[in-house]
Amino acid sequence: MRTQLFKNNKNKVWIVLFLLPVGLLITAFFVYPIVFLIILSFMEWNGIQPMSFVGLRNFTDIFANSVFQTSIKNNLIWAFSAAFLQIPLALLLALVLTRAPRGWRFFRTAYFLPNVISLVALAMMWSALYNPEFGLVNYLLEVVGLGHLGRNWLGEINTALPALIFSYQIYVGYFMVIILAGTLSIPKEFYEAAVIDGASVLQQEIYITLPAIRGIVVTAGTLAVAFALRQFETTFLMTAGGPANQTPVLGLFMYRRMAGLQYGRAAATGVLLIVLGIVVLSGLQRVFGKSDAVADSQQ
Amino acid sequence: MSTKRSIVFFVVVALLFASTSLFAGGRAETTGEIVLTWPSIWVGQDSKADVMEEIVAEFNEMHAGSIRVIVEPQPDYDGYEDTIRTRLAAGQAPDIFTFKLSPTTAAYYGGNLLMDFSAELAQGWGDNFNQGNLQASTIGGATKSLPYEIGFTPIWYNQDIFNEAGIDRFPETMDEFWEAADKLKAIGVVPTSQMTGGTNSWTSMLWYTHFLGSFGGPDVWERGFDDPAFEQAAAVLKRLYQDGNTTRDAIGADAGVSGGHYQAGRTAMFINGAWYIGNIRDNSPEVYRATQLAPAPKAGNYHGHQVGWLHTNLAAAHTNDPARREAVIKFMQHLTSPENARRVSLAAGSLLAVEFEIPADVELDPLQQQFIQAGNEAEFLIDHMEASMPVDVVYELGQAIGAMVLQDLSPAEFVDMLRAAQ
Question: Which residues of chain A make contact with B390, given a CB cutoff of 8 A?
C-alpha cells in the first residue's frame, strides 16, 4: 500500500505539499539552530561584536572547569534517579491504580496535578518547605522528636542535591499516567485466566502486566531520562547551583556562560549536552531494547 | 480542480495563514505616530512603579498622536537582565531599556546597537547630570547610556534592637562590632542578614565590599585579587557566617529572605540602597522608624567610606530614522528632567544621577535624608563587586562563600575560587 501511494505522481505532490510546512518548521527551528550551535561552539562571541574562530578552545576551556565536571556528574545523577527512582515509583503507582482501589480516580488526578502547576510555583513551595527557619520539613522533624535532624536542606553540601532530586519526584504522575494507559489496555481475559490457574496478584503483575507494558515503561524511562538531562529550572530556582558549586547541571552551566556574554562556551556546552543525551539515550535503548511501544506491537 | 490549481490554491492559503502572524503583534504606526516600547522593571511592587507610570502617561498626553511610549512590565529583575542580554545578542535592542553598567555589560557599547546621546548631551542636556556619573557612562567618547539611579549602600541597623541589647552606638572598630554581635545574640537577635543566593549574593556582596574598602582603600579593585585586602575581608565575611552571626538560612538565601529577616526584626543589621526605603516604610513601619545608617566598622586602615556606584543606566536602541531618534531623545529628556527626577526620588527614596533642587517646603523622608547625609560624610566611595568585576566572578561569590563556610576553606582558597572564575 505504501509503495502504491508513492507510485502515483499526483499523490507525490500532495505528500510533498503536506510535509513541506512541517519540514520548513523543523529546518527553521531545529536544524538551523543546531547547525548554528555547532558553528558557534568553535567561535568566540560576546553577542555584540563579530565572532572570531577559536577552534577547540571553548571545549578545552570548559573541560578544564571544575564546575563543568561537577555539572556532568550531576546530570548523570539526575538521569540515573529518573530511570531508577522516578520510573519505578511511577510503575508502582500505576500498578496499584490499575487494580482500581477505592478513590483511584482521585489519586490519579492528584498525582498528575503537579504537572499542570507552574514549575516556578512548585519550586517556591519546595524552597519554603525546606527553609531551615520556618520550613515544614524541619517543623515536622521537631514534632516527631527528631528536631536534631533539622538542617538547611538546600544550603548544606550533603543534602542539597538529594533535596532537589527528592522534590522533583513530585512529577512522577506524568509517567504514571503514561504507564497507566498501558496497563489499562491489557485485556482482562489474561488476568481471569491467570486467576483460574491460581496465580497470585504478584505473579499476575510479573508474568502478565510487566511483559505487556515493557515497551511503554522503556518509553516512559526514555522520556524521564531526557527530561532529567535537560534539567535546569528546578536547580536554577532552588539552589542556583549552590551551595559551594555542589548542584550545578549543564543547563545551568550553559546559562552562566551566556550571562557572562561567553556565547561560544555556552554553545560548546550545548553541543556536549546534546552528545551526552545521545550517548545516554542510546545506551538505554541498547540495554532495554526497543523503547518504541509501537515497534513492540509489530513484533 | 487540476493539480497546478490545487498547488497555487494551497500556497496562497498557506501564505495568507502565515502572514496573519506578521501583523498580530505589530505596532499601530499607520497614523504617523511613533511608538516606543520600554521593557521596564519599574512596575508592579517596585517603589518607582507609580511615579514612573505617571511620568510616562504625562509624556504620552503631551505628545498625543505623535509619540507614544508603551511600557512592557518586567517585574523580575534577574529575568529582565536575561531578556535584555538575549535581545541585544539577537540584534533586537528594545527602543528604551535599562541596564547595570559593569565590566561585562560595557560590551554593549561595542557595535552599533545602542544610541549615542553624546551630541544632545553636549547641547546643555548633560548639565542635568552629575558630571562624575556622566563621565563613568562615557566610553571612548560615546555616551551610549545615561546614568540614572545611583547605588549607595550604607549599613542599616535597628536602633531599637541596639538599645535593647545595651549597645549605645554603632560599632566603629571590629572589636566593638563582635562585642555588639555577642550582645545581640544574648537577647536572641541574629546580628546580620546575609545571603549567597540570587545572581550576586547581594547583601553579602555589599558586606564584603565594605570590608574590602576598609582593608584596601578606594583603589582596591584596580589592584586585583593579589591584594591581601581580598583575603582579609574574606576572613571577616567568614566569621559573619559563623557563630550565629547570621541566620541559618543565609547559605542559599535570596534578597527577599535577607531583607525579610531585617524587616521582621529577626536581624539587627542589613545592607541595601535607598530604593528599599519605600518597601520597608510600607511593610515594616516600626523597623523603618528604628532604622539608622552607618559606615562599616574599621577593619583595616580605612574607615568612613561607603559603597556607591552607578546602579541603573538608561539606554535606547540605535536607529537611523531621525524622527524616531528625536522621539527617543524627547522621552529621555522628559524622564531625566530635574523636575521628574525630583518626583522619582521623593516618591521612591531613590538617589539619582540627575541633579535637582529640593524646595524648602518639601519634607524629605528621614531615612532618605540620612542617606544623603551619609553620602556627604563618606570619606570615599568604593564600587561594589558587581560594578567592578566580570559577571562570572560575581556569580562565583555565592559559591565561594558557601565553600568557605561549609567546607571550611581558608580566605586564600576563597579568593582562589574568585580568581579562577575571572
Answer: 260
